Structures are given as C-alpha cells and as structure tokens.
Amino acid sequence: LFFYIPSFFSQKYPPVKFLSEKDRKRILITGGAGFVGSHLTDKLMMDGHEVTVVDNFFTGRKRNVEHWIGHENFELINHDVVEPLYIEVDQIYHLASPASPPNYMYNPIKTLKTNTIGTLNMLGLAKRVGARLLLASTSEVYGDPEVHPQNEEYWGHVNPIGPRACYDEGKRVAETMCYAYMKQEGVEVRVARIFNTFGSRMHMNDGRVVSNFILQALQGEPLTVYGTGSQTRAFQYVSDLVNGLVLLMNSNISSPVNLGNPEEHTILEFARLIKSLVVSQSQIQFLSEAQDDPQRRRPDIRKARMMLGWEPVVPLEEGLNKTIQYFSRELEHQANNQYIPKPKAARMKKGRPRHN
Ligand SMILES: NC(=O)c1ccc[n+]([C@@H]2O[C@H](COP(=O)([O-])OP(=O)(O)OC[C@H]3O[C@@H](n4cnc5c(N)ncnc54)[C@H](O)[C@@H]3O)[C@@H](O)[C@H]2O)c1
C-alpha cells in the first residue's frame, strides 16, 4: 500500500548541521525545558548533536522545546532528577533546579533534594557511562558578598539558615559533590557560576527587574522602582550564556568559571531604557527601599576571558528588544487562550449522604 502524506502534515524543524558519527555527541540536558536549558537545547540541536532533555516541568514548559518534538536527534523525557536515570550519554549539562527566589522558596525541601540528590544521581550517571558533567551553579554561592566584583577565588558569605539557603547552600554542596566525584572517581566536571541572565522564555512573573519593567511597560502600568533607583545590576543575554556554557563544557578547565556580564546599569537606567524601547506611556513610580536589596552585583569574568576567550557580546538594547518582542507575544497568547470555566450545574447526590 502506498500512502501519500501531504507536506502540511510533515513538521518543519529549524535547520540542523550534519555531524559525522565521530563528532556527533549524545547530550543530556537536565532542566532542558526551562529558560536557559531550552536555548541550550536549540544551540546543541542546531550544531547537529543528539539531545535528550530531562525535565519534571516544575518551572519548565513543553512549549519551550516543542519545535523539536519528533526530530530524530531529539528526545524529551518527563523525569525528576531526584530519581535515578539510566541512559547512555557523552555529556551532561545539569541545569535542573528552580532558579528564581519565588520558585526555589516555594518548596525549600524539594529545592534541596533537587540540588543534592539530583546532582548525586547525575554524577553517578556520569561515572557509570564515562560522561563529562557541567553543573549550572550560580553567583548565589557568593551569598551577600563582601568583595566586589566577585572572582572565582572568593569563598562567599552565605547564611546557612536564611530563606535563600535551600538554593545557595544546595548549589554550594552540588559544587562540592562535583569535586568529590572528580577526585575520588575521576569524573570529568565543569562548573559554571552563572550570574543574572535574561531573554526570551524567561519567567514572566517571578519578580525580576527586567521582566517586571517589561511587563509593566507593555501593560501601561507604572514602572516600580524601589528606593532611588541608583542600585546597579548587570545582566547577560541568554545567547551569550549558552555560548559560554558550551565553550566551558568543551574546554579543559575543571575549576569553577564565572559567566556573566560585568556591564553595570542602575535600576533607573533600566526603567528608562525599557520604557523608551517599548514606547510606553507608563510613569516611573518610586517606592520605599526593599529590605536586603543588594546595592551591587557584578561578576569578575577575567578567567572566562583569558581561558575560554569568552565575553558577552550582545548589546543590552538588542537583548531587551528581543525579550520585549517575546513578552508581547506571550501576553497576546495569554489573552487569546484564557480559560474561562463555565459554571457547573449543581449536582444532586442520589442515595444517603456520605462522609468523605
Ligand atoms: N537564569 C538565571 O539568571 C540563572 C542564574 C544563575 C544560575 N542559574 C541556574 O541555571 C539553571 C537553569 O535556570 P533557568 O533560569 O533556566 O531556570 P528554569 O526554572 O527556567 O529552569 C530550570 C528547569 O529545571 C527543571 N527542574 C526543576 N527541578 C527539577 C527536578 N527535580 N527534576 C527535573 N527537572 C527539574 C524545571 O522544570 C525547569 O525546566 C538552574 O540550575 C539555575 O540555578 C540561572
């Protein structure tokens, strides 16, 4: 029998390079349906590798990687890294972990389990199959730093029992585990200490400066600045981070490397720039200073520059424009897909009333 499948049934994928068997790697990305992980998936797929995404969809979404579903080089597994995983891979990018304060504080015990048991499971897998593992660590390992900017030699200033400890200490012990597996078992590890990152597919409602301002500007609401707005922040665009992660994975640097953008801007500068890029009529509204709002956060990226030849290249305005476009499409998508529940007719129970 001959079946004709019209072309509109066959899915179109973004173009991927062809790699020979020798150069093509089998790559696992845990947390690959999240913000950073999905961009990393795009890069590695387009570079021609075989990518397996493992995600429990706590903060990630199928929508972030749906454009690859069905591709012969791609696999999506709904799995929690707290449970062991047995697959054959050459490289593991271990990103699974909630990343923003509201998400990681939502269930601190689960955050701890993901970063500890989850990391042990992935290191166990790396040991078993001889894979190299890159841990997505964070600038939060430096805690409330007493040194500016922070370089990789700084040990940090973390409160082990504070509200952020489940994440900060979780990532710190995850780093410790990497080096224990390296020393004791010879597992090849890479540790990226990631600083603030923004871009499309970032979470819209987790209270970060960039997402807050973009949403407020797009919706014509006032842009809320806490204090005078003279506090500074530094953000890297997600494609810069992804390039850094891939360079680090394929380098021979096993010690931790900072990946971030050292270019600082005041909060007020961000507010004004976003307002003008959105061409928004929103006002800037000053509110009283937030508690524990750090005055400065800035990475020292000399090591990445020197040893990886890496530095951020995407100009802030360009990154913001792409993110603004994404947010406005998302707002449209939400407006068109609002689920409005229909009122249910009251149901009469038959028989005797039951105690549930
Ligand atoms: N975005 C940043 O600015 C930033 C800064 C520093 C570090 N990082 C690190 O980078 C990584 C990715 O962050 P992101 O911003 O993409 O966050 P994200 O929340 O978008 O992605 C995390 C992904 O991990 C998944 N996940 C969480 N717990 C899991 C579990 N137990 N099992 C399987 N999957 C699980 C989530 O569903 C999500 O898809 C995280 O490890 C984070 O700590 C991010």
Automatic annotation (TrEMBL):
Region (Disordered): 337-356
Enzyme class: lyase
Domain NAD(P)-binding residues, every copy: 28-323
Cofactor(s) needed by this chain: NAD(+)
An MF annotation (GO) of this entry: UDP-glucuronate decarboxylase activity
Pfam family, one: GDP_Man_Dehyd
Topology with respect to the bilayer: Single-pass type II membrane protein
CDD domains assigned to the protein according to its UniProt record, in alphabetical order: UGD_SDR_e (cd05230)
EC number(s) on file: 4.1.1.35
Any one GO BP annotation for this protein: UDP-D-xylose biosynthetic process
Compartment(s) where it occurs, according to its Swiss-Prot or TrEMBL record: Golgi apparatus, Golgi stack membrane
Pathway: Nucleotide-sugar biosynthesis; UDP-alpha-D-xylose biosynthesis; UDP-alpha-D-xylose from UDP-alpha-D-glucuronate: step 1/1
Composition skew (Basic residues), residue ranges: 344-356
Any single GO CC term annotated in Swiss-Prot or TrEMBL for this entry: Golgi cisterna membrane
Annotated keywords: Decarboxylase, Glycoprotein, Golgi apparatus, Lyase, Membrane, NAD, Signal-anchor, Transmembrane, Transmembrane helix
Top-rank taxon: Eukaryota
Membrane keyword on record: yes
Record carries keyword S-adenosyl-L-methionine: no
Record family assignment: Belongs to the NAD(P)-dependent epimerase/dehydratase family. UDP-glucuronic acid decarboxylase subfamily.
PANTHER family: UDP-GLUCURONIC ACID DECARBOXYLASE 1, UDP-GLUCURONIC ACID DECARBOXYLASE-RELATED
Annotated protein name in UniProt: UDP-glucuronic acid decarboxylase 1
Source species of the chain: Nothobranchius furzeri (Turquoise killifish)
